[in-house]
Amino acid sequence: MIKELIFSALLLLCGCNFADNIYSTIDGDPIPEELLELNPVTKAGEEFLKNNAFAAGSEQPDLSFMDTDISGKQVIFAGEIHGISFIQNYTIKLIKHFQKTSGLRHYLEELDYLTCCSINEYLVSGDERLLQKAFDEVPNAGLFRIREKFEMYRQLYAFNLTLPENERIDVVGLDYNKQAAEAYFRKIRELIPEGAAPDSISKKISALKAPDFGGSAGAANGALKEIQKDLPLHENDYRAFLGSSYSDFIICLYQQITAAEYPDTSIGRKRRAELRENSCYVSLCAILEKYPDDVFFGQWGRNHVRRSSCNGMKWFAALLESKGSPVRGKVLSLYFMVSDCRGLALNDNGELEEVAVDEYRTHLAAITGIADAMNSNITAFRLSGDDSPFEKSLHFVDPEASGGGATTDYIDYVFLFQNSPPSAPL
User: Fold this and answer.
1) Segment 189-233, tens digit of pLDDT
2) 250-290 pLDDT, tens per residue?
3) Residues linked to residue 298 through DSSP beta bridges, in sequence order
4) Residue 213 backbone phi and psi in degrees, to 5
5) For residue 70, what are the CA distances in angstroms to 292, 296, 329, 417?
6) Cβ atoms of 363 and 162 closer than 8 Å
């Protein structure tokens, strides 16, 4: 018999909340009453949801209900719960719709830059050996290494063939890879041009050019940290010297530093999360310098897509909405919730285990009835609009973990997935 687990915060690496509102029963015991009292949807909220519900679960769903809200947005996020089959199969449907309506050009993957370079090689060539290699080399990625994800990339390749070459979608890796230090050191060296660097940065650049760079991971990471500290002082010199390689250099620099520092549990969970979110933010800002007008879409763990602070910190989407962000005011967040689903989670041994996944009953009591009446396993709910209670009060986000405000400060839509089986491991 499959053990029933609490599915709150699978792993910080998976992007789930420290105290995310995803609960099952505990060995058959009912959910504690005190948990059921958390910011329930009001009667006014139920009525609003009823009038702003859209069936979205067909093989080719009509997602045009989002088009007005998508207009003018440059980064679209979907916040998922990992390991649920219906959710994983939905990615390609969103990609296709956003490409047709917004000219989507880049899929933001919750993976690192170099892994996504391999995936992009597959998207150009169609050689599935390259795709399999990318999947095989991702460390501790049981929740990535699933059949639905592999099939999504096969479908993306086929979809790209229907598009002109200058409109095809590539994959951008914004996360880190803790087991790819040697590959990152090599890539960083490759990005450094021949010739002398400006005097202000020559010593630090020379450290990266040294024959023994990368021989000692500690020393190499230290050299990268020195450049990271020096960048605010001599950014123009680094830009001038690195030229067209500057953006890729910054991405590799930050991702490798994060890979080196994130495993250090002594710095605390919050600080580790901040390192990761900031690295993702810097990586995307570097990509935006290359493609300042392009549209991006990513399907990440739910914490990353909330546009306001949670747990006392700014996660990825909140950083993108911060002062100074190149896409401030241009981020749309879809929030995936579940009812009576099965999922995959990583247990304490790093092994995949099937679990029951559900949300607080008071969150979804009204929504579930609406979705059932619409005869759809996937139902979308717009949260903004005339007299929307969700623009005035906070729901679907733990108020104790949040920074306050209203629901639409965090998310724009809720997508409810019902009765999904778990994802299938490769």
Assistant:
1) 999 999 999 999 999 999 999 988 888 999 999 999 999 999 999
2) 999 999 999 999 999 999 999 999 999 999 999 999 999 99
3) 77, 108
4) -65, 125
5) 17, 12, 12, 21
6) no
Rounded-to-integer distance, Cα 419 and Cα 426, Å: 22
d(CA 299, CA 264): 27
pTM across the whole model: 0.90
Question: Are 341 and 300 in contact, with CB atoms under 8 Å apart?
Answer: no
Residue found under tokens 């549209």: 295
Over residues 31-40, the pLDDT tens digits come to 444 444 456 7
Q: What is the pLDDT of residues 178-190, one digit of tens each?
A: 889 999 999 999 9
The domain segmentation of the chain, as residue ranges, is: 1-174+296-426, 179-294
Burial 267-299 (b: 16+ CB within 10 A, else e): eeeeebbbbbbbbbbbbbbbbbeeeeebbbbbb
Task: Name the token pair of 257.
Answer: 């530093």
Per-residue tokens: 341: 């689903």
394 secondary structure, DSSP code: -
- Strand 352-357 versus strand 106-112 pairing type: unpaired
What is the rounded distance in angstroms from the CA atom of residue 317 to the CA atom of residue 332?
Answer: 9
Beta strand pairing call for 352-357 and 341-346 = antiparallel
Fold of 1-174+296-426: EreA/ChaN-like  fold (3.40.1660)
Give 123's contacts (C-beta < 8 A, 6+ positions apart).
153, 156, 157, 160, 168, 169, 170, 171
H or E element in which residue 356 lies: strand 352-357
Closest residue by Cα to residue 290 from 76, 106, 43, 59: 106
Q: State how far Cα 291 lies from the chain centre.
A: 19
173: enclosing H helix or E strand: strand 170-175
**DSSP bridge partners of 55:** 379
